[in-house]
């Protein structure tokens, strides 16, 4: 659907054949005291195409265009957060912007998060596919 809206539907095989997945599980221990509201994962963008995240409690924030950090209130059991990442920005010739994000603690229990990183194969040259095919 995303590729279709960008006029890149015909390149779906190319991106899928260059893609593989890496997953990671993170346990953010609850912190009390003066460091309580400090960022647990500083602002960054991810390398790769997309990052799919499942969290047990809120804490993930994205930087909105107006400079505000927006809390991604998403803990429903049947939904996931999908962030656009750096290589997808290159592949779409900047049509999609890589999402700057961070993790700040909320709540009073450990935050558990599973990330599934969709990343290009190291042998694949990431470029706007329209340019690759001339
Ligand atoms: O734990 C999260 O929700 C996000 C983790 C993250 O941004 C990363 O590992 O790159
Ligand atoms: Fe990240």
TrEMBL record:
Residues 19-120 form the Fe2OG dioxygenase domain. It comes from the Eukaryota. Pfam families: 2OG-FeII_Oxy (PF03171). This is Fe2OG dioxygenase domain-containing protein.
């Amino acid at each position: 659907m995303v590729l279709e809206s960008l006029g890149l539907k015909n390149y779906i095989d190319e991106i899928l054949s260059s893609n593989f997945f890496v997953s990671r599980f993170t346990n953010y221990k609850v912190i009390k005291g003066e460091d309580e509201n400090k960022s647990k994962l500083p602002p960054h963008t991810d390398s790769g195409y997309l990052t799919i995240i499942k969290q047990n409690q809120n804490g993930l924030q994205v930087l909105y265009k107006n400079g505000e950090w927006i809390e991604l209130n998403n803990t429903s059991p049947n939904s996931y957060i999908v962030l656009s990442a750096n290589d997808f920005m290159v592949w779409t010739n900047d049509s999609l912007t890589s999402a700057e994000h961070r993790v700040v603690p909320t709540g009073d229990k450990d935050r558990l998060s599973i990330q599934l990183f969709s990343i290009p194969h190291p042998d694949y040259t990431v470029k706007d596919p329209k340019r690759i095919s001339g």
